[in-house]
Amino acid sequence: MQHWQHTHAFDQDRKLPGETRTIIVIVITSTMMVIEIVTGIIFGSMALLADGLHMASHTAALTINAFAYIYARRHAHDAQYSFGTGKVNALGGFTGAVLLAIFALIMAWESIDRIISPIKIAFNQAIFVAVLGLIVNAVSVFILGHHHDQHEDHGHEHHNHDHNLRAAHLHVLADALTSLLAIFALLAAKYVGLMWMDPLIGIVGALLISRWSLGLLRSTSAVLLDKQGPKHIRTKIKQSIEHDGSRVADLHLWSIGSDIYGVIVSVVSHNPQSPERYKASIPSNLGLAHVTVEVHQYKKKDMDQAIF
After folding, report:
1. Which listed residue, of 18, 164, 181, 245, carries a Cα 20 to 30 Å from 145's Cα?
2. Is there a contact between 72 and 85 (Cβ–Cβ < 8 Å)?
């Protein structure tokens, strides 16, 4: 029986480089988050407070992502998960997206309140802390972005499909942009007298977070709801099976982890081959970790009349 049995860990038991890098960024950004929120309140800067809340949003999301990495790794061999724990990362990303939406609403509400009831801003102190926040964000971008470059150099694209790492990288990129906007708003308010720029940047930050939240919700929900996998992979599977006259009657391709997929194919042919023969014809570089092939026999006249 062991010949037909296999593990469903699908390498989810490995400690991915993204896990360590994410934890490092959490430590860095959570420290800066506390500094920006406290000083934003003390110095009266909504832009600075918004930047701190933005940091809080991605710190919370990154913490969930780190937990997902650890949970997926430790439960990779748990038989209760039919196709492994790869979707735990997508679930972490989805939860982080919901938190982002909540933080965006808080930021927008506070910014509107500051427009209606403006308060005095200690510009020099606020600008100093905002610049410090930008430096921290730049370091975080380098830490997570460097990992992305390493994978590309080796011909892999895990970063594009690892929702944890993708979320982390885009979070810090968005945060760096928010820091730049905060500095611009504070300078405009101090030297040009545009006091409304400070709370306006809070609203802009909320819009940026909302946009990212929606994008992350779309990508992670596609995985969680077993949306059909990439079209180019489905096309290659179909072409590899149909080269001998067989036809693919039904094909289900879904994500079960970072760059790994499960697939169920129903094949009809007037001269059917064994399921193993069809499996062997599928290219091995498509990331298919779990392949199931159903074979059905049709008479040739029926094949000619069938609509595929």
Report:
1. 181
2. yes
